[in-house]
Amino acid sequence: MYYDYMEGYMRDDMNYVETLKKKKPFASSNVSDPKDHLFPDVSSINDNVYQAVIDLIRIKAQNPSIPLAALVLGEAGYGKTHMINRLLRNVNSQSDLSYRIAYIHPIEDPAQTYSYLLREIVTNLFYPIQNNHPATIMHGILAEIIKKILINATFVDSVLKKKVHTILQNNPVDIFFELESNMSLWKNVENKLKIRYSNICPPILFQVLMQLRYNDRLFAIIEWLKCNTLDADMARMLHIKTANPSSMLAKEQSARDMTKNLSKLLGICNYPLLICFDRLENLNTDDKIQSFGQMVTFLVDDAISMLPVAFCRGDLWNNILKNKFNRHVSERLESNTLEVMGCDIDQALELISSRLTWAYGHSDHDFQPFGTDIIEKKFSGRLRSSRNILQKANSLAAEYTGLSTIKPVIEQLKDSFRSHYQKVLAEFERHAPERSRIKRALRLFFEIKDFSVDVQFGDKYIDFAFSLDCADANDAKKGIVIIDVQNHHRSVGASIKRGIDYLNKYPTASAFYFRDERSLLPSRWKSTNAALDQFKKQGGHVLLMDRNESAQCFAITLMNYAINEGDIRVEISQSLDMRKATIDDFLHFLLESILREPFTLFKKIADILKLRKKIRPTIRTAPKPKNQTILNKTLECLRPQPMMMASTDTILSYLSANHVKTNLDELMRLVKRFNDRFVIHRSKTETIIMIIKEWINAQP
Amino acid sequence: MTNVEQQIIKLFDAQDKDYLTLKTLKTNSQIKKLLQLTEKMSNTEIKKKLLPHVEHAIKIVKGYKGLYVMRNISDTNLIFNRIRKKPCSLKSLKVYFPVQTKELAKLVSQMVRSGQLCAEFSEKSDINLSIHDSKTDHDYLKTQKESAPQASHDRQKMKAAYDHVGGGRSFVRIYAMREFLKWSRQRFDRALEKLTKELAIQLHIGDPSVLTEKQLEDSFVDDEGQVCITITWRDI
């Protein structure tokens, strides 16, 4: 009997370990995408912050024109993005409150502040409500407004009345898909909306939005809402007047007006829209910071039913960003400052328990195979970020499962990239061609390939110029990059003309014209197509980005944002200690991988420019004796230093005093290569090298 | 104390050190000016310039890396202070130390024999040195004696520094608090560790790239080896 019990117990223990091995419940410790809902939410963690945001939303729902904003502060890993994730999970969980969320990526082009804000809001409003259903959030908002009209309307046809009421009762968005062909019903609804809300929204807004029932018009509607200039066919399809491309200033004004109109539409159905600005670390120029400030001021003062909330690292806000904003921006945001906090032991236990419950499929696990004592001992004694808890739990799990083989940093970044790339591909339709994001990815490519990049070159149609000086003048290269996302023949023609003009002036240079394959030039644009042919004849390169290539660009940019935020961490020791992946790691990963699969777009550019691949060893070999000496002496120099770190100058003087000949480049190359031993901190004034914990006493 | 001695002692205090290489003096603009030092001067030339200003606060000695200027304290006290700040191996201690290796080994052996230092062999055959719990200098004894009231006193002072430096905001930089309090490194770190254990504060890693090397040095490395640059007070 005793043996049976013991055998059963051991079998259970083995099962737990096997499940840990298979499901890896602690492997993911960051919410890089707020729409990820894979792991259970632990509601007790930062519940006060969540409740405070919900209270603000409630105030906004009751009084849409009240000026409100909020600021959520917390260091990397404390759950800022997770807070957005929780708010997204619970959009309909409150019986008396419904809200929607727009997640705004950091702005890249400050000249397009309001156009960018509008594009991001519209993109968010057209996310599907649920998988396998064509309805988007915008369908849902419209359905609520239509419901107000139809619920009390008189119907001649009693069968229609019954059908309409059933739809409105069960799932109002179905009205767009089950009654799309009933012309008279839609005409009536449209007229009534125009009359009832004539002093709130312009009639044309209802006229266009009522056409959401036609799936083939969705693209044109989205483009119109984003204030992009529509070509004649699209305008005709929506029964609106064609317009010529407008100046940037006029476009910015239109974007402000459209955002205000959308906010009023949200006000009609009492759906506050939470505008979440995340990853503010990427506001790396004063222009971008001012641009963000303008967005906040505009949303607070002019857009009813929209509630801007900024999520920012505490030190960054208090010591850097805050000082760069006008006082009225920081005061607006700081009027509701909330702080995400670390977890105490009870919350740590709850977090680990929830992941184990997710993995085992039941909550009766009693922290097996670890046991409560071990977990309590490991996590008590201080407040910890949820990321730190999950990482420590992961390293503890590795002791049981034996899965502690550490991958090189570059391989871990490859995995991270793959995950970003797959996510973009999985929801590709949500990633409309966005010039600034494609530009960031292309710029990164040229910069890691040692090109100088000039973003000020030319006018608004040219994204940047690049050049590479070489000792052999024949190898020198220069050119321009044009990324075109316009859908009006005049704008497209103007972009191509810049390319032709450039090639006329510099016949030996290269000109690249990038366009998303989703918006191919229609054959009826005869003169535009002729200009494109002329561009090609003069040696211009037209690169139409397919689905995979566009997704590569988006994934690189999103990963770059995450790296800047400190959201991507890499394992650095057998005990699964982790550190933030640095921008140097990221650039190294790109340099090593960008000419390989799946980066076909960059391979094409490299082939056109005849770039030779830099050969670098991909597998780390044992250091050569000289390098070994440099590494040993560097460790020797750092160990007695305060905090075991020193500037590269100090290390180089030490090496020189010890008769080790080297230079800064060689030292940095070695330190980067042996990144399991050293961490590089780029301080304000110097580059600082620090020993990683594992190597404090270890011998090389 | 001469004017030069005063400046050098100030430099020691600012860096929480008892000694510096002579060459380091060239990096301090005031000392450089007082002694009329130039960038190209050798150690011997600096020594010549410094000697007339040496009375009783400092002394010039020969150590691991040539000439050093140090506080006028005994070599035993120098070793003791160094180990108290950061226990280390004999191998690490000798690097940059202002006592020549042969003499250092002799002094350390004496201190181990007399019980002033603890020596333990590591698995890598290194000798790790630390301070014996019961042996300590005047400052440490005082701390021990007044341990409980001092801790509570330190907590209040830390909170006051947090409020003052942060100006009522959270995520206060550790180096700025250290600068404000001007405590010894050991006292400040101990107070920070204690508050962390009591869950009164939360340490944050933050982004070290926004700090200078000196500011980073004056931040804090937690027990998991992470450089923490800010704290938030959670004691409600």
Number of helices of chain B: 11
Can you list the strand order of the major beta sheet of chain B? 1-3-2
C-alpha end-to-end distance of chain B: 47 Å
Q: In terms of per-residue confidence, which ranges of chain B show pLDDT below 50 for 5 or more consecutive residues? A: 134-146
CATH topology of the largest domain in chain A: Restriction Endonuclease
Order of helices and strands of chain B: HEHHEEHEHHEEHHEHHEHEEE
Shape of chain B: globular
Q: Could you tell me the strand content of chain B as a percent range?
A: 15-25%
| Integer average pLDDT of chain B | 82
Largest sheet of chain B: 3 strands, antiparallel
Class based on secondary structure composition and strand pairing of chain A? alpha/beta
Distance between the termini of chain A: 53 Å
CATH class of the largest domain in chain A: Alpha Beta
Structurally, how many domains make up the residues of chain B? 3
Spatial extent as radius of gyration of chain B: 20 Å
The CATH level-2 architecture of the largest domain in chain A is identified as 3-Layer(aba) Sandwich
